[in-house]
Structure formats: structure tokens, C-alpha cells
């Protein structure tokens, strides 16, 4: 029996990541998820965000005699100093811990307890520290965490399913996908699109959530000021995965114009990979593992405009071919098998 500490049943990339992996696991998994955030199914709510009260987790582990625990960590869920406490408690209980670090770069200047250095001693007690990219491996190595680190790629959603009703796509369409958040560059993309000739429509499949702030209003203002109401479609409802992937697959180019981010991997871009559509990304580390993506010159509006306007059909065809190959090599069952081998 495996204990799995993660978010669950909510609009969260880590919750989605865990669900896809657990669905492919052969072993019995007990999901220990967040509490106080609504009803959940298939999981035991027993911890709260950014709290160092671990009584619920410890009780579940003891009651079910769980000897192996998988933790999905992101500092927004649990600050590093609290994570350190949890890891030492589990080590004292002789529980084998396998942790996936979804962010190894957090260096908070204001809150020392949120700095990754605060979790070093705990991370060294783990059986395995799983990360998504080479830059994560290097980040941990600089902190003296090396012998127990393993790079496990982020899984990719299955290709578009037949018979799924997608949103209507007409003409030469550019699109993006992901929560509507300032650092994801949707504002810059709309600005850039207003200066790009030859495109019939820009579709933003960007659901709102905590953190969206004024991003939606800013985008709507750009649309209105540039008279783009007939050319830019902002879809803010949370779409079913199959609908989103099917819709993206009908577009000519997907653009992920992220600005600065400390995240180690993007779940949103993997929806694009699943679609098999050519992809263009900003040149930042979060996209280093997306083989086949066309790297734009920078993150600014002018650089996005210049980059997209100069993409050739040959580059688009090459991107599509490599993206499909990447998708096929990173299906969830393949990634789940790699992790299960580590847990043995």
C-alpha cells in the first residue's frame, strides 16, 4: 500500500498530475489530500495548505500501516521549512519517502521559511527526490542533494479522442491554453496578435482561478481598444481535458508566451503536446524539455511578434512531427511504470 500526499479533486495542476499517474498504478494507493476546500471523492482529506500540523497525515499512515509515501510538493502548498519538518517526522517513523519537487528554484527574500535551503536536511532523508528537468538536478546538486535525485519527465495527456465535440475553429487559428495568470503571458500574446497579419483568430482557452486578478479585464481592454472582438476569443470556463485537446488539435499554431516563472514544468504546455499541433514557446527553462517546440526570441511583445511572423512552414511541419513523437514517448502509463520501479 502506498500513501500519496497531493492536492485532489480541485482545479490544480498537481491534482491533475497525480490523478493521471495513480490511474495507471498497479499498487493500492491511499490519497491523502487537502482539507477544507470542498468535497472530494477517492481521497482522505487530512492536511491544510501551508500548515505544519501533520496529525492527520501521521494518523492515516499509522492506522493503515503505510510504509511508503509519495509526496507531490509545490511551495505554494507547503513552505519548505514545514516540508522539512514533515520529512523528518516520516523518517523517524521509518517510512520510505519518494518526493516529486515541482519547484526547486524558490528563493523567497521576504520569508526565509519559504526558501528551499530550509528543506535540505529533510530532502536528504528521502529515498528518492524526483524532479522534472536537468536544471532541477543542478539546482539540488548546488544544495548538496545529489545521491538520491532522479529525473522523471512530466507525463503527457493522450492524443485527441475521436467523437469528442470540440469548440468551433475557423480559418487560420492561433491558440494558447492554461490558467489565466499574469506570468503566463496571455496579455502579451493578445498585444502581439493585434500586430500579426494573416491570422483569422486567436483562441485563449484560459480558465480563471485565484490569482487571475485583473488579467481578464486587461485582455478585454486590449481586445476592445484594438477592435479585435471578431478575432480574439477568450474562453474562461474550465474545459474538459478531451474537449480542450480536441480544440487545440484543430489550430495551426499553439503559443505559450510565459514570462518569468519558478515552476519546473508546465502542465498546460503538455495539453498542447497532446494535441499534436506545432508549438512556439518563450525561451525560458520551464520549456527546456519540450523537444520540438519553436523557441521565440524573448518574452516581450515585440519579440513575440517578430518570432511568430518569421516561422516558416518547414519549421511548423518539423515542430508537429517532433511534438507527436514527444507525446508518444511520455504517455502517463510509461511515466507511472518508471515511478513504480523506483518504489520497489
Question: What does this 3D model show about the protein?
Answer:
There is one protein chain. The chain has 344 residues and is α/β, with parallel strands linked by helices. It has two domains: 151 residues, 3-Layer(aba) Sandwich (Rossmann fold); 157 residues, Rossmann fold (3-Layer(aba) Sandwich). It contains twelve helices and 13 strands. The strands form two sheets. The chain has a seven-stranded parallel beta sheet with strand order 3-2-1-4-5-6-7, sandwiched between helices. Strand 6, helix 5 and strand 7 form a beta-alpha-beta unit. Helix 6 runs parallel beside helix 7 and helix 6 packs across helix 10. It is elongated and about 60 Å long. The N and C termini lie close together (11 Å). The mean pLDDT is 94.
List its traits.
6-stranded parallel sheet, Rossmann fold, 344 residues, 13 strands, alpha/beta
Amino acid at each position: 500500500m502506498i500513501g500519496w500526499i497531493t492536492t485532489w479533486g480541485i482545479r490544480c495542476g498537481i491534482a491533475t498530475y497525480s490523478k493521471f499517474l495513480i490511474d495507471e498504478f498497479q499498487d493500492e494507493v491511499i490519497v491523502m489530500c487537502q482539507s477544507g476546500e470542498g468535497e472530494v471523492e477517492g481521497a482522505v482529506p487530512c492536511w491544510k495548505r501551508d500548515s505544519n500540523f501533520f496529525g492527520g497525515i501521521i494518523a492515516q499512515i499509522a492506522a493503515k500501516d503505510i510504509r511508503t509515501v509519495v509526496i507531490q510538493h509545490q511551495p505554494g502548498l507547503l513552505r519548505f521549512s514545514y516540508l522539512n519538518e514533515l520529512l523528518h517526522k516520516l523518517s523517524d517513523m521509518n517510512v520510505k519517502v519518494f518526493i516529486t519537487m515541482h519547484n526547486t528554484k524558490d528563493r523567497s527574500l521576504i520569508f526565509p521559511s519559504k526558501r528551499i535551503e530550509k528543506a535540505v536536511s529533510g530532502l536528504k532523508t528521502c529515498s528518492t527526490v524526483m524532479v522534472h528537468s536537468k536544471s532541477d538536478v543542478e539546482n539540488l546538486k548546488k544544495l548538496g542533494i545529489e545521491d538520491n535525485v532522479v529525473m522523471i519527465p512530466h507525463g503527457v495527456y493522450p492524443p485527441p479522442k475521436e467523437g469528442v465535440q470540440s469548440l468551433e475553429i475557423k480559418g487560420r487559428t492561433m491558440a494558447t491554453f492554461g490558467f489565466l495568470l499574469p506570468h503566463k503571458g496571455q496579455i502579451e500574446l493578445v498585444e502581439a496578435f493585434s500586430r500579426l497579419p494573416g491570422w483569422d483568430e486567436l483562441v485563449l482557452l484560459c480558465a480563471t482561478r485565484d490569482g487571475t486578478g485583473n488579467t481578464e479585464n486587461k485582455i478585454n481592454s486590449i481586445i476592445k481598444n484594438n477592435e479585435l472582438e471578431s478575432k480574439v476569443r477568450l474562453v474562461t470556463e474550465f474545459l474538459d481535458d478531451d474537449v480542450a485537446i480536441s480544440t487545440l488539435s484543430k489550430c495551426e499554431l499553439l503559443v505559450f508566451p510565459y514570462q518569468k516563472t519558478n515552476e519546473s514544468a508546465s502542465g498546460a504546455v503538455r495539453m498542447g503536446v497532446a494535441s499534436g499541433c506545432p508549438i512556439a514557446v518563450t525561451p525560458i527553462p520551464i520549456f527546456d524539455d519540450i523537444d520540438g517546440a519553436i523557441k521565440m526570441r524573448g518574452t516581450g511583445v515585440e519579440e513575440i511578434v517578430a518570432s511568430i511572423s518569421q516561422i516558416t512552414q518547414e519549421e511548423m511541419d518539423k515542430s508537429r512531427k517532433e511534438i507527436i513523437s514527444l507525446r508518444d514517448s511520455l504517455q502517463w502509463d510509461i511515466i507511472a511504470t518508471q515511478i513504480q520501479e523506483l518504489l520497489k
